[in-house]
């Protein structure tokens, strides 16, 4: 679900986001995660799926890294305002000539459109009062009725999946559901559609006007209510629901602390926050195809730290909260391939000094790199993995490669590179190739 529906989520989660920031004691972003809607818009943050980048190496070698034992673990791209470069396995740095290769033709999107599923090129627009769902340039569904909405961006919710489409025209108004080959049906239940699941059924949030509690239910593509998943949930509990669009599963917390997972057909208890040793309502993150994080929050509970679990609920590690409340970034994890290590960056505010920590199963955090000028804790996690190596972008494009195994060997990448006129130009970003 992308676009119009995120406005409701942001409104419901605003109070909790502010609470997390204050509880962390850090300025601005705070130690705990405040961007709760980010994981629901993972595909929206990706680059245009209709194109990808092709890089061609030029012949002239501009820079050579100091002698690196064993070479660089994998090529790294360095980006500047005057062009991009590649660090080869040998440590030689070449300038790149780049071009965009389009997998699908670019589509002109009219004003007021919204993405429904950007990864597969599905979007929505209004035409003469009808809601149209479009994939690339082909209309794949058209509403039978007309709706008094200026454009799709003004609809409250639009969600689409393998089985069909569901939408809510106005906030607190009725919502509708339809199979791909049928007309929409009005559903009388008070609430709104959340996501289509792997089973082909629809998860719906239940909420009556004026009520302070919420619930979840499962509906069929025809609009029949199949099951009630939960009721009487507070805003803070609802704030921790997770739509895993990649696997078609929905995760949510119950009032008793159970973390539940459902594919719209079968529902499983994965773990319990109280059994994990946490009180209150922790922030929940499910790293796609990987680990589960319970992050303690709130003025009274933040010091309980965080608990990391395997997908089935077995303990991976416990990570204690940092000693100083003004340290930010503690809750933002990066998981290595194969779930062998998790890493995070703790930044002291306002100095900006940062430390990269690595945690192995059953172990305590180990500092693998320190810098006096770290990255901003407000942005995305500045870490990327290649096997056991971390790429850490630490300050205005400056970057290092960190071997999290053995003696934590460091390879420092240049902060500036020569442009075509020979003048140095700052490195603005880096990524594995």
Report what the structure shows.
The chain is mainly β and 433 residues long. It has a domain at 51-102. Helix content is 5%, strand content 44%. It has helices spanning 6-24, 235-238; strands at residues 51-64, 76-80, 83-87, 92-102, 114-117, 122-127, 130-135, 138-142, 157-160, 164-168, 175-179, 185-187, 191-196, 202-206, 214-219, 225-233, 242-244, 249-253, 258-262, 267-272, 283-286, 292-295, 306-309, 315-319, 327-328, 334-335, 342-348, 354-359, 366-371, 383-386, 389-395, 398-403, 410-412, 416-418, 424-432. A 6-stranded antiparallel beta sheet has the order 1-4-3-2-35-34, with no helix packed on it. Strands 25, 26, 27, 28 and 29 form a 5-stranded antiparallel beta sheet that branches. A 4-stranded antiparallel beta sheet has the order 5-6-7-8, with no helix packed on it. The protein starts with 5 loop residues before the first helix and ends with a strand.
Short account of what is shown:
The chain has 2 helices and 35 strands. The chain has 433 residues and is mainly beta.
Key words describing this protein structure:
433 residues, mainly beta, 5-stranded antiparallel beta sheet, 5% helix, globular, disordered N terminus
Our count of helices gives: 2
Using only C-alpha atoms, the radius of gyration works out to 24 Å
What is the helix content?
Answer: under 10%
Largest sheet: 6 strands, antiparallel
Mean pLDDT: 83
Q: How many E-type strands?
A: 35
Distance between the termini: 29 Å
Weakly predicted, low-confidence segments: 1-28, 30-52, 100-104
Q: Hey, roughly how much beta strand do the residues contain? A: 35-45%
């Amino acid at each position: 679900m992308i676009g119009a529906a995120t406005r409701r989520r942001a409104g419901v989660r605003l109070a909790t986001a502010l609470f997390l920031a204050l509880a962390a004691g850090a300025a601005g972003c705070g130690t705990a995660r405040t961007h709760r809607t980010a994981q629901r818009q993972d595909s929206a943050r990706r680059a245009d799926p209709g194109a990808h980048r092709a890089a061609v190496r030029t012949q002239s070698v501009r820079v050579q890294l100091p002698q690196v034992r064993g070479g660089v673990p994998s090529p790294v791209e360095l980006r500047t305002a005057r062009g991009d470069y590649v660090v080869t396995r040998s440590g030689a740095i070449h300038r790149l000539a780049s071009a965009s290769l389009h997998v699908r033709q670019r589509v002109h999107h009219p004003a007021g459109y919204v993405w429904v599923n950007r990864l597969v090129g599905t979007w929505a627009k209004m035409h003469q009062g009808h809601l149209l769902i479009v994939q690339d340039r082909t209309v794949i569904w058209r509403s039978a009725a007309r709706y008094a909405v200026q454009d799709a961006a003004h609809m409250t919710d639009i969600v689409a999946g393998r089985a069909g489409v569901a939408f809510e025209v106005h906030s607190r108004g009725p919502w509708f559901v339809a199979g791909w080959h049928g007309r929409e049906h009005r559903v009388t239940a008070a609430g709104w559609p959340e996501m289509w699941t792997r089973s082909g059924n629809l998860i719906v949030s239940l909420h009556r006007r004026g009520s302070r509690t919420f619930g979840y239910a499962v509906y069929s593509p025809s609009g029949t209510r199949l099951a009630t998943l939960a009721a009487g949930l507070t805003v803070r509990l609802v704030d921790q629901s997770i739509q895993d669009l990649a696997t078609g599963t929905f995760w949510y917390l119950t009032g008793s602390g159970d973390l539940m997972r459902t594919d719209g057909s079968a529902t499983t208890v994965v773990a319990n926050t109280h059994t994990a040793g946490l009180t209150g309502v922790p922030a929940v993150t499910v790293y796609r195809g990987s680990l589960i994080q319970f992050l303690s929050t709130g003025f009274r509970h933040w010091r309980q730290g965080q608990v990391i679990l395997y997908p089935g609920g077995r303990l991976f590690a416990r990570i204690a909260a940092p000693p100083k409340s003004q340290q930010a970034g503690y809750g933002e994890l990066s998981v290595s391939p194969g779930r062998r290590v998790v890493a995070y960056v703790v930044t002291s505010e306002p100095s900006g000094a940062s430390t990269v920590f690595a945690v192995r199963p059953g172990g305590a955090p180990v500092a693998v790199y320190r810098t006096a000028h770290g990255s901003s804790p407000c942005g995305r996690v500045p870490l990327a993995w290649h096997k056991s190596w971390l790429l850490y972008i630490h300050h205005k494009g400056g970057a290092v490669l960190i071997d999290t195994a053995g003696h934590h060997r460091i390879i420092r990448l240049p902060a500036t590179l020569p442009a075509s006129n020979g003048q140095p130009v700052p490195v603005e970003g880096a990524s594995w190739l």
